[in-house]
Write a structure and sequence with these properties.
- The protein has helices spanning about 25-40, 125-130, 145-160, 170-175, 180-190; strands at about 5, 15-20, 45, 75, 90-95, 100, 110-115, 135.
- The protein has about 190 residues and is an alpha/beta fold.
- It folds into 2 domains: about 5-165, 3-Layer(aba) Sandwich (Alpha/beta knot), CATH 3.40.1280.10; about 170-194, no CATH class.
- Strands 1-4-3-2-7-5-8-6 form an 8-stranded parallel sheet, covered by helices on one side.
- The chain is globular.
- The two termini are about 35 Å apart.
Length: about 190
């Protein structure tokens, strides 16, 4: 997977998308790539340079996050990622802050840009000024960055499936045949919206 590090032009952003502000760990960037691939989202943006994914020793995505299956995701590094999106995109800050909407009641915008802060900090004022909506994941403790991305994208997908806006994904459909899972589901009574 190549990392795009080109100047940003309006229209380069493809919503919905995920933006990671100053991530600290390559494995969290890799997990975000995996999450967006799982839910059919095409871009992960990350800012700053604490994570340098240029292939230098110790600065690569973990092996499991460099699988060919994630080639459908474009990974872009830019501090000006907001400038890449059209004006109809709705930046959504996913962060613990006063006045945030609970993810449970949140209506996901069609063209959302989900903005996540660093593992060891909050979103700065300059980033917050760009965000139109604020969401909190109601948990007993803070989740890590990768878990927050997965939780948010799952919630989006589940609500869109219930509303009839997109089909439910089945592992068997995305991988070809996976009869063992289908057999196990039948045995334990679990269904995936067949």
């Amino acid at each position: 997977m190549a990392i795009v590090q080109a100047p940003v032009n309006r229209g380069d952003g493809i919503a919905p998308a995920v933006a990671l502000v100053d991530p600290k760990f390559p494995h969290n960037v890799g997990a975000a790539v995996r999450a967006v691939s799982c839910y059919g989202i095409r871009q992960v943006w990350f800012s700053d340079d604490r994570v340098q994914l240029r292939g230098a020793r110790g600065y690569r995505l973990p092996r499991e996050e460099r699988m060919r299956g994630y080639q459908d995701v474009e990974l872009r590094q830019s501090d000006a990622f907001f400038d890449a999106f059209e004006r109809d995109v709705v930046p959504v800050a996913v962060e613990v802050r006063a006045g945030s909407e609970s993810l449970i009641e949140f209506d996901h915008p069609e063209k959302a840009l989900y903005v996540f802060g660093a593992e060891d900090g909050s979103l700065g004022k300059a980033v917050v000024r760009h965000c139109h909506r604020f969401v909190i994941i109601p948990t007993r403790h803070c989740t890590n960055l990768a878990a927050a991305v997965y939780t948010t994208l799952y919630d989006r997908h589940a609500k869109r499936v219930r509303a009839g806006l997109e089909p439910a994904q089945r592992l068997a459909e995305s991988r070809g045949s996976f009869s063992e899972t289908d057999t196990m589901m039948d045995e334990v009574g679990v269904t995936w919206g067949r």
